[in-house]
Amino acid sequence: MKQLNQEEAKRICDRVIGFSKADECSVTIHGSREGNVRFARNSISTAGLNEDMRLTVQVAFGKKSGIAQLNEFDDKSLEKAVRRAEELARLAPENPEFMPAVGKQQYKPTPTFVRSTADIDPEFRAQVAAYSIEAAKKAGLVTAGFFNDSTRFNAIANSNGVFGFQELTDLTYTCTARTEDGRGSGWVSRAAVDARRFDAREAVGVAIEKALRSVDAKALEPGRYTVILEPAATSELLGNMFSAFDARDADEGRSFLTKAGGKNRLGDKLFDERINVWADPWNPDVPVMPWDGQSGLARQRTDIIKNGRIASLEYSRYWAQKKGVAPTAGHGNMIMAGGTKSLEELIESTKKGVVVTRTWYIRMVDPQSLLITGLTRDGTFYVENGKIKYPIKNFRFNESPVTLLNNVEELGKAEVIAPDEVPYQMVLPPMKVRDFNFTSLSDAV
After folding, report:
1. What are all long-range contacts of 350-353, with beta carbons under 8 Å and residues at least 24 apart?
2. pTM for this one?
């Protein structure tokens, strides 16, 4: 399927808006070409290429709105979709929180497209799988993993004169390596916008090393330990916290950022002063769309946490109007400042502690304190006098990222990660944290 260029996308958006008889009309077009290869038990299991393009039109009569979606782009189909959206809008009840389409925005392009990634072909994907499988066989291990590359475009337009067009590329890779008897397991994940910055041999080597080192794990008594957390181990914990920076949730008493009297904790110091987090759509490592796909507002570089203080909250257009403040675009990435030390150097500076490769099966226990439970997996190790002494059995933990970011002892060099279940591109450092709360043992590897 042919991907649209900016001129073609604008022509289609203008046609759709021209067909509308509603008070307002908004259009989005999304196109993608996604290639993948999956391997398991040291063999390629599936591979494919999926191409898709679809248009969504939303119209409104007063506070009544309707939406229709289609993947045909001739004039007859476009007009039919507009009429369907208008029919649904007339039948819909009024939305008391309805906000009209945004006014004209300035969308500054972000560096989301790299030709090397767009040029990935089946041979490239097969080679990634081959590197992973051959390295595992050589080490006497079994691998399973997934490589995905994507080339996309997004267009946005409305009857107020808004128009934006952006092309994007990215790739993700995950691999689990295990001993044939299942007693050792290692894991690695990589993400990049630029394929030239991805090295499959380096990545699978990390998983293999962890698998070989994690055999014959010993049981360590649950309790509070100093831990060295790799970025993948904190991504979902911190992702849950970043998702809670919503002003309405805080003002209405549903958040850890709630303050008595219907207020929020904007400006309060909640974390160690070394904690700095910001969103930046132009960050070269994790660039994102220059607009928020939900509101259409242009994104800006925004401090989230500054020297341990809550620097900003997200205000939807409705809640901003209610509170008399400026609305904010939803953030597409989260970038946390780190230090200069490598993971190995954090380990070397630890007298006694635990290295955690990865956490999984994360579940929220208490939204108002952000207490989270989950499990470690794929490589957990005991450290003594700056050296990894032996692998240990996995733990269940109960911990809040708020507590975690108050107990930081050292931050390592930040790196790009590919979180599984959070809505952000992320750059996070490894970190050494005291008093991490392990509550019980897990027999899983």
Report:
1. 350/226, 350/228, 350/383, 350/386, 350/432, 351/384, 351/385, 351/386, 352/225, 352/226, 352/383, 352/384, 352/385, 353/225, 353/226, 353/227, 353/228, 353/382, 353/383, 353/432
2. 0.95
